[in-house]
Specification:
The complex is a heterodimer.
Chain A: H1 3-14, H2 20-32, H3 34-51, H4 64-102, H5 108-117
Helix pairs in contact in A: 1-2, 1-3, 2-3
Chain B: H1 2-10, H2 16-39, H3 42-58, H4 69-90, H5 102-108, H6 119-138, H7 141-152, H8 157-164, H9 168-197
Helix pairs in contact in B: 2-3, 2-4, 2-7, 3-4, 6-9, 7-9, 8-9
The chains are: A mainly alpha, B mainly alpha.
Chain lengths: ~150, ~200
């Protein structure tokens, strides 16, 4: 192995990411080559320094945003049910209003009163009825309007 | 990884929130460390982590139980960071050359926990951490993320290729080039250190 190849593989050598054969070859080269050996020492020093670094203390609640998100979601679900109920109430109200506006006289007591006021068909009007078997067209009998033939 | 696997398997699917919270508790430190080394700023790192966790929670139904939560989160955080980075690049930051760079200024006020009883050790560690962070911020972000995942998070090349969505050869090359760049940037510091110790 030449110096260029060894220097390229030095990091992998330090991280033990090479095969046993490659490691042996590099070790043999480092034994006899001082520039490569110096580079290996410096890279080892950097690796050791990085490994020894300690993290600074955490001063904030790192789950703060997650808590806020969860609270927001909980509130959202509560509001969602409230919204659904309000929507259902609004639809029912709208249905009632529409039916009242479209059929203003079809409410229960008023209809009963109308039924009472309707003129009764007395036997006097019997003559106006068409005879059985006659081919005359059927004319509806309306109250107060004489039926003419 | 084993802990996360057992958690995911024992919990019912309905208790997603509890499961998610447990996973975050287990991995919050490495995730925050990753975000911090990537952004180089405490506030940016916390923002990135909060944003990443929100994104992860919203798509948690897609997370496969039994797989590594931290690897999944690294992927989310890296993508978010790239998106933010591109947005920032479209709006270039203008500052005076006389003023210290914002992330370097922030790094000076960063509180590094005391892991040593000796004050000299702590000071040296702080200085080393600051210098390395400054150097990390100067190398391209695709080299930076590969080096962070390899050296700080201890992921294998195979795992890094899965997180970054690139080939093994690309990962190998990025790590090597990233370390070479760091070596060039940190050489004066190490030389000075060697001179001081002699």
């Amino acid at each position: 192995m030449n110096c260029h190849r060894v220097q390229k593989l030095l990091s992998s050598y330090l991280d033990q990411e090479l095969s046993a054969e490659e490691r042996r070859e590099i070790r043999r080269h480092l034994f006899g080559c001082s520039p490569c050996s110096r580079l290996c020492d410096e890279l080892t020093l950097i690796k050791d320094s990085l490994e020894s670094l300690e993290p600074p203390a955490i001063s904030r609640d790192i789950l703060k945003k997650v808590h806020l998100y969860r609270e927001g979601r909980l509130l959202q679900t509560t509001f969602l049910w409230g919204k659904r109920l309000a929507m259902a109430a609004a639809w029912i109200l709208l249905f009632l209003l529409t039916s009242f506006l479209l059929f203003p006289n079809s409410s229960g007591p008023e209809l009963a009163q109308k039924e009472e006021q309707r003129p009764d068909y007395s036997p006097l009007h019997e003559e106006a009825r068409p005879e059985e078997g006659s081919k005359l067209p059927f004319l509806p009998r309306l109250p107060g309007i004489p039926v003419s033939r | 990884m084993l802990r996360s696997e057992s958690l995911s398997l024992t919990r019912s699917p309905s208790d997603r929130w509890g499961d998610f919270e447990e996973q975050v508790k287990i991995y919050e430190k490495p995730l925050y460390h990753f975000a911090y080394r990537l952004t180089g700023d405490v506030n940016d790192a916390q923002d990135l982590l909060q944003e990443g966790l929100l994104k992860a929670y919203r798509s948690y139904h897609r997370f496969q139980p039994g797989t590594a939560f931290d690897r999944w989160m690294f992927q989310i955080l890296y993508r978010l960071f790239i998106d933010n980075y591109r947005k920032k690049r479209r709006r270039p930051f203008i500052s005076s050359l006389d003023e210290p760079h914002p992330h370097l200024e922030q790094a000076k006020t960063t509180d590094v926990p005391d892991y040593s009883n000796l004050p000299e050790d702590s000071a040296l560690r702080q200085e080393l951490g600051r210098t390395i962070q400054e150097a990390l911020m100067l190398i391209p972000e695709n080299f930076r993320v590969a080096v962070i995942l390899c050296d700080i998070q201890g992921l294998s090349y195979e795992e890094i290729s899965q997180v970054l969505g690139c080939s093994l050869g690309t990962v190998r090359s990025r790590i090597h080039r990233g370390r070479r760049l760091l070596r060039e940037l940190l050489q004066p510091y190490f030389r000075e250190e060697r001179r001081r110790t002699k």
